[in-house]
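Task 17 of the worksheet. Students: predict the tertiary structure of the chain below and write it out as structure tokens. Keep your answer in the requested format; marks are given for formatting as well as content.
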Amino acid sequence: LKGTNQTYRELVLQLVKEPDGKMLNTLINILGITKIEGVLNETGMTQTSLKDNTTSPKDMGILLQKLLEGTIISNVSRDNIFGFLTDGNGIPEGVSPEIDVPHVYTKSGRVVNDAAIVKTQKPFILVLMSQGVITDQVNKFVPAISRIIYEYEKI
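Model answer:
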């Protein structure tokens, strides 16, 4: 990127790992919001708007499913992104430790979101989104609900 030591790849990977308004704005300025939102719509993410800073569980699920299938980026790029998304907060806490769970966990004020691919023998997508919550309560709720769903999916 002009004026920094950061590459586009590094910017995108950092944005995926730790969503940040400043980095997102940099990416929007480079690519253009119309182009980005056009790609989102083409992939079926019709409830996501960068202008309004909104998305939906369905759209996050679509994004993760397409990443898992390797239909929107190469498998090498996908695996690089998955490598950045493996900390143990949120959904992974409710899943067996030997299961790989790439996920995006975001928290801003009283909004907490977690979107994950639970890579069991039959991988599944889990997206939990909330708003107007007390973070400590959500930090207990997310692992608990992910444990229930993980146990159900194992059957």
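Marker's comment: The chain is about 50% helix and 15% strand. The mean pLDDT is 85.
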